[in-house]
Fold:
Amino acid sequence: MYKGAMVGLGQVALHGHLPAWKENKDFQIVAGIDSSTKQLEEFKKKFPQAEIYPTFEACKKLELDFVDISVPPYLHYPFIQQALDQGLNVLCEKPLCLSESEFKCLEEKAALKSKVLFTVHNWKFSLLCKKISELLNQKVLGEIRYCAWYVLRNGPSATADPNNWRLDPNKSGGGILLDHGWHALYLILGWLNKKPKKLEAVLENRQYENLPVEDTAKVLIEFENGDEGVGPKAEIFLTWASRLRKNQGVIEGSEGVLYIEDQCLRLEKKGIQESFSFQSPLSLGSFHPDWFKDVITEFYFELQNKEQRGENLKMAKSCLHLFECAKESNQKKSSILL
Structure:
């Protein structure tokens, strides 16, 4: 059994991670770490058998195997550094870090220490996204030509911190592009399974003009050529300025079209329609402990299979690179060759 500590005890940790850890028989959470007395007390109420500590340094006496990091993004890098220096495996909320230079240091240290460095890519484990992956793996749509992913929200997600770190670019690293765009990127990269070659992005404030981060992002990505000689294109649209809370999209292929409608999928192929409905909308809630169970399973696989590690880290690297390129494209007001 792997023993771990949860670093950062905010909403995602307490309501998204902890319930899944409690049910897993291969892992044991033995400590919770947070600088907030309130969050430590809430964690202790939910999980009284674990110890609580105000700092990471205070729990060095524990014989840990891993940490689960759920702090604001600007703290990911230093906490991951500390954990790897102590010889611990790391599971961390997205984004893994905020710059490619930080990523390079972490990647090298994880390799040197022979430890797992793993990012939480949980959306791909929703039932709806699992079904999309299943259909695409079966080549139901033929050669993919176009993929669109839209995230509509009526405001930023709440945090345990009343000041909401998501709205501070020095803490969050950006606005909705980083908050929801990271999910969109690993989903689309996984579904298309091709190398992106060109990107163009526009970041703007459509409603919250006084925010220091963008409330709306549009990203267009062109991919390398497919079997038909033309590469697929992807469009990502994300906004906090909608009156709706909804996820939707479409995937077009040479043999059919798949419409993504938050709580259902609608497949149109050769004049025949087929629908797949799900119990809950994809946009419902923010914590998703049921999705996190599958994240733990993937993390466990990498811990157990040293020679087969790295797919998750490779995807995180790609997401971070595209995020950096999107910011550059917006600043230059032009497309970026990848």
The chain has two domains: 2-119, 123-288+320-337.
